[in-house]
Design goal:
single chain; alpha+beta; 3-stranded antiparallel beta sheet; 6 strands; binds zinc ion
Length: 111
């Protein structure tokens, strides 16, 4: 479960950044890499925030794709490590992998 540690770390980091004087955010947006299991991510986040100011704050999970380069035609495209080139169907190599987890924003709910 390699994704648990980075997610706990992000939760801890956010807790440190949150000002004690301000009310806790109403929603937190966390970006995860496409190959992260969202249930595992949710579970790791919940255990890391249990009993803290983020306990019960809803999390919006957004999935980030990696950037791949096709080994056959060198075209760049987005996807996960198993995605095939949209042009020629060839295998691609990840050239830029998104972080496993990253808190991208928090604040009052926009909706
Ligand atoms: Zn290709």
């Amino acid at each position: 479960m390699h994704e648990r540690a980075p997610i706990s770390k992000e939760a801890t980091k956010l807790l440190e950044e949150l000002s004690i004087r301000e009310p806790p955010p109403q929603v937190v947006t966390v970006a995860i890499a496409a190959d992260v299991d969202i249930d595992t991510a949710r579970d790791a986040w919940e255990s890391a925030t249990e009993g803290t100011r983020l306990d019960g704050v809803p999390v919006e999970w957004v999935v980030r794709n990696a950037l791949l380069v096709c080994l056959t035609c060198t075209r760049e495209y987005e996807g996960d490590k198993l995605s095939r080139c949209p042009v020629c169907g060839g295998d691609g190599l990840i050239s830029e992998a998104p972080p496993i987890a990253q808190v991208v924003s928090w604040g009052p709910s926009a909706t």
